[in-house]
Amino acid sequence: MNPLRVCILILVFAVIAARAEETNTPTTAGATSNAVPSGVTSNVAPSTITIDGTTYQDVRWGRLTPSTVTIFHRTGIATMPLWKLPPDLQKQFSYDAEKATAFQDAQRKAAGRAAVQARLQYLRKIDGVIYDFSPAETARRQWQQYLDGHAPTDAGLPVESERLRLYNAQIGFDDYRLIGTVIQILDNGLLVGRYIGNDKYPTYLKHYSGEHSAVDGDLIRCEGMDTGRYKYTDVSGAQRTVPMFDCGEPLEESDFTAKIISIAPHPQ
């Protein structure tokens, strides 16, 4: 047989075999199904639904929680409370009113803890009360921004209402700040020389975060409140009474839901 004819026949048989295999191969569906969220064993959820008078089309069902379900629809995304769904869908999603309420309560508490954590650097627990010291930081920052934006002249900064307002605002919080040097290490605190103007006054410092590593002569800066008087014995054995300044105790889990009081500047 002519070799050319043999090659042609082989090519024809190969094409026929390939077409036959293509015909017998099952086709895979390309469309996504409208299945309910993972973990829900039931029938396929509807692709169109009306809730509170609004009709959602081309619905795809997303994340399911004990109280809500997220849907992706033709014009966007929405999160629906399960109690607003028709009874058949509530059953399909295993809705339980008590579990939904417990879940929402837990979510609110978690959100509250997160908000407190964000403010934690400014919170102090003093004599059992939670105080928010962020107003002092805000006033200090605003005053510093003013100084950065107004270069001093030979005559000093211009005396203007904005300057006076910001200056008075930040010094109004001076009583909540302590700057001093360590004089003596005491039981459960430090004796420091607190700077007030050009003078130093012995002050008992309580709940200072670095008290265990402090040594005589260290410079101390902290925020807190004057909370009364403190008696101690000095190195000579004499009894002394000095003002007490409390930097605040560390917060505990139970404090996250307590009432928080923002400090206010003292009038100047």
Report what the structure shows.
This protein has 268 residues and is an alpha+beta fold. Among the domains are: 47 residues, no CATH class; 139 residues, no CATH class. The protein contains 5 helices and 14 strands. The strands form 4 sheets. It has a 6-stranded mixed β-sheet with strand order 11-8-9-10-13-12, with no helix packed on it. β3 and β4 form a beta hairpin. The longest helix is centred in the middle third of the chain and has 23 residues. It is elongated.
N-C termini distance: 116 Å
Major beta-sheet overview: 6 strands, mixed
Query: Could you say which structural class the secondary elements and strand pairing correspond to?
Result: alpha+beta
Proportion of residues in extended strands: 25-35%
Rg over CA atoms, rounded to whole Å, is 36 Å
Element string (H = helix, E = strand): HEEEEEHHEEHHEEEEEEE
| Uncertain parts | 20-33
